[in-house]
Design goal:
16% helix, alpha+beta, 3 helices, outer membrane lipoprotein receptor (LolB), chain A, 13-stranded antiparallel β-sheet
Length: 262
């Protein structure tokens, strides 16, 4: 009996090793992305405050104060709203995003000066998010189904053992050919993303810093720093005052809510 058990154990180990060896870079990249997504599921909704610091190539800064709301949607991507409070020239501006898993996101922009809601066309999602180095396509939730994946390598980044994967946007209107993403192995958090433009030239780099954990599960970065390598401009996002499970409803994220948002 002991001999049979030993043989069985060896066969099982051999089978497991064969499976691990047989995993393709595409399969491993997808598995990492799915685990990242799984760990952030169930937060229900969040509200937070953000300071956006825009810096041009000459070092001149401008600041914007923004309030954000986000809500999970069963069987689809998240819904989110960005409300601009300062400075005066953008006060009252609001952006509503419905992220989808298998089709282009829906986005609307409310401009108080015009008192109208404007739909953002899919082909314009690569445009700047209100003067920042973030594109409109960057501000929605990054659903697993929006990309194809490939594992590239393991690498230590900022002292953390990390996976490095490549993800290629499926949306034909994306402003990127590919993104290279660093995700730490311990907690599956974004550490850095390199964005490559439609000519496959490095366009931007986004770094995530100062993570905090909420509800003993959900990690959020207090600081994100985006640098545009082609223009020399940067955008820093400073996040604060995270509140989870606020009881938001679908009606808090419909188009009419853009005009009444305060």
């Amino acid at each position: 009996m002991r001999k049979i058990t030993l043989i069985t154990s060896v066969l099982l180990l051999s089978f497991s090793a064969t499976l691990a060896w047989a995993e393709t870079p595409e399969e491993k990249g997808l598995a990492i992305a799915k685990e990242f997504d799984r760990r952030d599921n169930g937060y229900i909704d969040t509200a937070s405050d953000m300071t956006m610091i825009l810096t041009n190539r000459h070092g001149t800064e401008s600041r914007r104060q923004i309030r954000l709301r986000q809500m999970e949607t069963p069987d689809d991507g998240d819904k989110s709203m960005s409300l601009f409070d300062e400075p005066a020239d953008v006060k009252g501006t609001a952006v509503l995003t419905y992220t989808h898993k298998t089709k282009s996101d829906d986005q609307w922009l409310y401009l108080p000066a015009l008192k109208r809601v404007k739909r953002i066309a899919s082909r314009n999602k690569s445009g700047s998010f209100l003067g920042s180095e973030f594109a409109f396509e960057d501000i929605g939730s990054q659903e697993v189904e929006k990309f194809t994946y490939k594992y590239l390598r393991d690498e230590v980044y900022n002292g953390l053992d990390s996976f490095v994967i490549e993800r290629d946007p499926i949306d034909r209107f994306s402003g990127y050919t590919r993104q290279v993403v660093w995700i730490d192995k311990a907690e599956y958090r974004y550490q850095k993303i390199d964005f490559y433009d439609r000519k496959n030239v490095l366009l931007k780099t986004l770094e995530y810093n100062k993570y905090q954990q909420y509800l003993n599960q959900y990690w959020r970065s207090d600081e994100m720093y985006m640098v545009n390598h082609q223009t020399g401009k940067t955008t820093k996002l400073l996040w604060s005052n995270y509140r989870f499970r606020n009881g938001f409803k679908d009606s808090d994220f419909d188009r009419s809510s853009l005009k009444r948002a305060r």
